[in-house]
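## Example pair
The file below holds two records. Each record gives the amino-acid sequence first, followed by its structure token line.
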Amino acid sequence: MELEKIDLDKFYLILHPRPAYVIGSGKFGEKVNFMAASWVTPMGEEPPLVCVAIGKGSLTNELIREYRQFSVNVLPIDRVNELYTVGTVSGREMDKTKILKAVEGDELTVPIVEDAIAVLECELWDKVESNDVTLFIGQVVNAKANPKYFNQKTGWNIRDNPVPLHNWGKGFHRVGQFIMAKTLEKHETK
């Protein structure tokens, strides 16, 4: 089968669907903003680091720079409308705490989503600039998750399909099947 050329301004869709998160920025009790982001990934374990790519013109970018902290919040798939909304409207135009209630983090003054099913609280560790995006690297200082959905030994309980996967625009997926991989023997590989 021949591969079809993809426009470079849409290259990232090849890497989707990806989990969609809510990034909390600012400082609880002062300035608070939430935005959706799927460009989030772990970066290291010692120290525990996570990266999030945020557009340079966004309020979230401004608040992470100012307060040097952010949170990564996991909402369940049944909150996809709120997730989508905070990702498409600027915090300069709308108080997003009217959509998602903010509470203060346990370790930092970072805002977190009150009913998130998992949360990472992060202190800004470093940043990398591109033309249009800043890759913020945060050191995770607190991690917590709802045990109904997440277990440290087995990860996410996929049977309950809690984590929304962003495909493109308004399009999201639920996880449908768990498959345990096996290591192939030499004669099974190409």
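Second record, same layout:
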Amino acid sequence: MLYTIALFIFGCANISLPRTTDVPFDKITHFAAFLGLEWLIELALVGTAVAARRRTAVAMSAGAGGLLELVQASLPHRSAEWLDLLADSLGALAGAGLLMLLARWRSPRVAGASRQLP
């Protein structure tokens, strides 16, 4: 909950990231922030079935990104952008994908280690 509150505070603050044509810092921070939110939501739902937990976490993270864009649209010093929402959603999906890859990577090692025990 604190992470989400911090996202909204910083998302609504009158601050700006460096603007360059080479590196889209704004989109990178959106992607990373909502990837992190997806991970935290999955941790909060750890007792839920994996597929349901993953779908819920992606939907909640991307939904929070959409809500943040709506809030930013109403602020005079901020703007809502479709590309920001896309970066938020892609970050949420990437978070789920990375957790899936991590689970697959760990599963054979854990299963193999348990078979070797006497």
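Notes on the second record: The radius of gyration is 17 Å. The longest helix spans residues 82-116.
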